[in-house]
Design a protein that fits this description.
The structure holds two protein chains of two kinds. By secondary structure, chain A is mainly beta. Chain A is 0% helix and 51% strand. Chain A contains no helices and eleven strands. In chain A, strands 2, 4, 5, 6, 9, 10 and 11 form a seven-stranded mixed sheet that branches. In chain A, strands 1-3-8-7 form a four-stranded antiparallel sheet, with no helix packed on it. In chain A, strand 9 and strand 10 form a beta hairpin. Chain A starts with a strand and ends with a strand. Helix content of chain B is 0%, strand content 56%. In chain B, the strands form two sheets. In chain B, strands 2, 4, 5, 9, 10 and 11 form a six-stranded mixed sheet that branches. The chains are: A mainly beta, B mainly beta. At the A-B interface, strand 5, strand 9 and strand 10 of A face strand 5, strand 9 and strand 10 of B.
Chain lengths: 111, 111
């Protein structure tokens, strides 16, 4: 059963803590992406990676970090430097020149 | 200027109506085009790719106008289950396979 998994579905953290969101895909896609979506807003790109051990900043990378040690995995760390971390985080992947598929998302609430 | 722009709506239409959404893109080097559907508090799901010659999938028709730089989505015989937010997406190979999404158009089909 191919697809993209994200865990956990809901995450609650205290301000000042770093938190890591998981994203795994078994679609054999080279490219993976992280987006943030705020209520009533569009998708904003945080980071993306086209190949293992390489990634690029998106439009809103400040306060976030990623790694791509394996093709299947692209975890996102939300650091304490991120000013407004509460949001819906979506991971996606795509094959070259093909459409993008999304995981179910993680809702992060920081208080 | 945003890479991709959509009318946010909302569009409220009666069951059985035909509704059309447009999406404009700013970069003529845009390579691939897609429509996604996003239900409330869920991830976007691919509705259909948009091909140069236009394409149809049941009640849904997508068209691309490269000269005027827009894509459109037509929904015929609207169903209650079509109520969702529709996102257009543009993929540009010359920016590292990045996807650019519109902010989405909200559709509510009324009984």
């Amino acid at each position: 059963d191919g697809g993209i998994t994200q865990s956990p579905k809901y995450l609650f953290r205290k301000e000042g803590q770093n938190v890591t969101l998981s994203c795994e895909q078994n679609l054999n896609h080279d490219a993976m992406y992280w987006y943030r979506q705020d209520p009533g807003q569009g998708l904003r790109l945080i980071y993306y990676s086209q190949i293992v051990n390489d990634f690029q900043k998106g439009d809103i990378a400040e306060g976030y970090s990623v790694s791509r040690e394996k093709k299947e995995s692209f975890p996102l760390t939300v650091t304490s430097a991120q000013k407004n971390p509460t949001a819906f985080y979506l991971c996606a992947s795509s094959a070259y020149r093909a459409e993008q598929y999304f995981g179910p998302g993680t809702r992060l609430t920081v208080t | 200027r945003k890479e991709v722009e959509q009318d946010p709506g909302p569009f409220n239409v009666p069951e059985g109506a035909t509704v059309a959404f447009n999406c404009t893109y700013s970069n003529s080097a845009s390579q691939s085009f897609f429509w996604y559907r996003q239900d409330c508090r869920k991830e976007p799901k691919l509705l259909m790719s948009v091909y140069s010659s236009g394409n149809e999938d049941g009640r849904f028709t997508a068209q691309l106008n490269r000269a005027s730089q827009y894509i459109s989505l037509l929904i015929r015989d609207s169903k209650l289950s079509d109520s969702a937010t529709y996102l257009c997406a543009v993929k540009m190979i010359n920016t590292g396979n990045q996807f650019y999404f519109g902010t989405g158009t909200s559709l509510t089909v009324i009984p």
